[in-house]
């Protein structure tokens, strides 16, 4: 992780101590900046995208796995059931909202909310989910559970809940084996929508939508963001793109949001990076490959500036970043929207600084901190009143409450597992890139390590759900 410096004028004798504290972050103090593509550089329209993703998966289940026509009901009818941070206990068909210690805060079976008594009867008096240590240690999904924490898989919350309700309605014994089949079918529908070859083949439901009507589902990058990327490189920073999207889809999206010259914004481009494995797996298991005409070619041992590669690992990338920055240990920051792929692994395995993109902040509304040093963010252009109501209705749930915290039966605030991972692995958190591009590179952001508040890393202010 890159050293970070206080926004106050430091005592020269105390600079190292303040840097180690990591209580502030500035882009001026890093040597390399990495960015994710989807839901980071490319900001999608939440309501339209969720509806389209759900429709593509539900139609596949009805047509290929013979599920009932009720699966085709619009996603929006149950949008309040959807919220970031829910965990599916796949073998039981239960959705769980977990505290940072693994305690079950709220639960449902399919769409049906579970009572306190039902939770205790299923999970024991302590309401502890037994796989929590495994989840918290690796923060990866398994065949037993799935944590919904990014916008590509969150429509699956409503999909799987409706599948559970469908199963209960038509149950005929062997419930566990049927639940296992249901989960396999859900994974099959997900893979059909997103399999890499579907983009070129114009199949799967998702890719045809974003190819045929891109601006129905995504926003163009503003001139502020384009200028910010140029300023980073002009300031001597190495700028790289690392996305799990394959090269053909990446090229299509980047052209739509940045322009035909999109490659000129980056020193190196990595597609199909297969995060989080890009960070967690050793280099010998994650080689880089050349990319020619959107096809992955031969293994590559050394990376070069101005080229694009596929797959790979952070250690080999660091060799190039050392060359580009002329630093033995360059300070790197990575910006992305996924806790599981973009925040937790680069912090844990690469020790990079991390910036999390969290659109829920804008959906909930924020209490802006107007006391921070430096120019204010362009508040008028990012008013919560301008946020799309249909998207807000998806990202903010009355049934589940906010994804970062919950209220215990005693009324005290309880941090969720996602809230814990966020503030322990992200340095700062913003609703989208505009909030970074609106500020000079030397702006000092308080981080989640700041001792003045447990949530000091939210910028321009903490979500309203964290208001005491």
Question: How are the SSEs ordered, and which strands pair?
Answer:
Layout: H1 15-21, E1 24-25, E2 32-35, E3 43-44, H2 46-64, E4 87-89, E5 94-98, E6 104-109, E7 112-113, H3 116-123, H4 132-138, E8 145-147, H5 155-169, H6 175-194, H7 197-201, H8 206-212, H9 214-217, E9 218-219, H10 223-234, E10 238-242, H11 247-257, E11 268-271, H12 277-280, E12 288-292, E13 295-300, E14 308-311, H13 314-325, E15 332-336, H14 339-349, E16 353-357, H15 360-364, E17 366-368, H16 389-395, E18 405-407, E19 413-415, H17 417-425, E20 428-430, H18 434-437, E21 445-446, E22 461-463
Parallel strand pairs: 2-10, 2-15, 10-11, 11-14, 15-16, 16-20
Antiparallel strand pairs: 1-21, 3-9, 4-5, 4-8, 5-6, 6-7, 12-13, 12-14, 17-22, 18-19
Helix pairs in contact: 2-5, 2-6, 5-6, 14-17
CATH superfamily of the largest domain: HAD superfamily/HAD-like
Shape: globular
Q: What is the class of the largest domain in the CATH system?
A: Alpha Beta
Q: Which sheet architecture does the biggest sheet show?
A: 9 strands, mixed
What is the strand content? Answer: 15-25%
Keywords: Acetylation, Hydrolase, Magnesium, Metal-binding
Protein name: 5'-nucleotidase domain-containing protein 1
GO molecular function: 5'-nucleotidase activity; metal ion binding
Family: Belongs to the 5'(3')-deoxyribonucleotidase family.
Q: How is this structure best described in words?
A:
The protein is an alpha/beta fold and 468 residues long. The chain has two domains: 227 residues, Rossmann fold (3-Layer(aba) Sandwich), CATH 3.40.50; 165 residues, no CATH class. The protein contains 18 helices and 22 strands. A hairpin with a 4-residue loop joins strand 4 and strand 5. Helix 2 packs parallel to helix 5, helix 5 runs antiparallel to helix 6 and helix 14 packs across helix 17. The longest helix has 20 residues. The radius of gyration is 22 Å and the shape is globular. The relative contact order is 0.16. The N terminus is likely disordered. InterPro entries: HAD-like_sf, HAD-SF_hydro_IG_5-nucl, HAD_sf. This is 5'-nucleotidase domain-containing protein 1. Belongs to the 5'(3')-deoxyribonucleotidase family. Keywords: Acetylation, Hydrolase, Magnesium, Metal-binding. One of its GO terms (molecular function) is metal ion binding.
């Amino acid at each position: 992780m890159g050293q970070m410096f206080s926004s106050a004028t430091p005592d020269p004798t105390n600079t190292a101590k303040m840097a180690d504290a990591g209580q502030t972050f500035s882009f001026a103090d890093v040597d390399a900046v990495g960015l994710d593509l989807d839901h980071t550089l490319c900001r999608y329209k939440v309501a339209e995208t969720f509806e389209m993703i759900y429709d593509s998966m539900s139609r596949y289940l009805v047509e290929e796995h013979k599920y009932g026509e009720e699966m085709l009901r619009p996603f929006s009818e149950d949008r309040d059931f959807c919220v970031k941070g829910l965990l599916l206990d796949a073998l039981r068909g239960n959705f769980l909202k977990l505290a940072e210690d693994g305690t079950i805060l709220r639960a449902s079976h399919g769409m049906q909310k579970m009572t306190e008594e039902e939770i205790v009867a299923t999970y024991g008096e302590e309401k502890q989910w037994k796989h929590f240590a495994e989840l918290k240690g690796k923060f990866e999904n398994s065949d037993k559970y799935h944590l919904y924490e990014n916008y590509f898989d969150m429509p699956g919350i409503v999909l799987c809940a409706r599948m559970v309700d469908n199963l209960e309605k038509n149950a005929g014994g062997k419930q566990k084996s049927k639940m296992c089949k249901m989960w396999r079918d859900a994974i099959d529908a997900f893979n059909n929508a997103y399999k890499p070859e579907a983009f070129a083949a114009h199949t799967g439901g998702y890719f045809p939508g974003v190819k045929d009507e891109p601006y129905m589902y995504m926003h163009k990058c503003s001139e502020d963001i384009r200028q910010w990327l140029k300023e980073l490189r002009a300031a001597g920073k190495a700028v790289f793109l690392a996305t799990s999207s394959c090269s053909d889809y990446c090229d299509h999206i980047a052209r739509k949001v940045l322009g035909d010259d999109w490659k000129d914004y980056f020193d190196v481009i990595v597609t199909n990076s297969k995060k989080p494995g890009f960070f967690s797996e050793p280099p010998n298991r994650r080689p880089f490959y050349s990319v020619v005409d959107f096809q992955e070619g031969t293994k590559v041992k050394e990376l070069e500036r101005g080229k694009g590669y596929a797959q790979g690992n952070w250690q080999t990338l660091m060799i190039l970043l050392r060359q580009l920055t002329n630093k033995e240990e360059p300070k790197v920051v990575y910006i992305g929207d996924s806790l599981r792929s973009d925040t937790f692994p680069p912090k844990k395995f690469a020790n990079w600084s991390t910036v999390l993109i969290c659109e829920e902040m804008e959906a909930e509304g924020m209490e802006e901190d107007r006391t921070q040093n430096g120019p204010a963010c362009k508040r008028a252009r990012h008013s919560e009143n301008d946020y799309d109501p249909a998207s807000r209705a998806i990202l903010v749930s009355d049934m589940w409450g906010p994804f970062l915290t919950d209220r215990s039966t005693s009324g005290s605030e309880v941090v969720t597992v996602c809230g814990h991972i966020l503030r322990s692995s992200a340095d700062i958190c913003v609703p989208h890139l505009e909030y970074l591009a609106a500020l000079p590179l030397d702006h000092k952001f308080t981080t989640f390590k700041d001792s003045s508040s447990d949530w000091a890393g939210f910028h321009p202010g903490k979500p309203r759900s964290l208001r005491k």
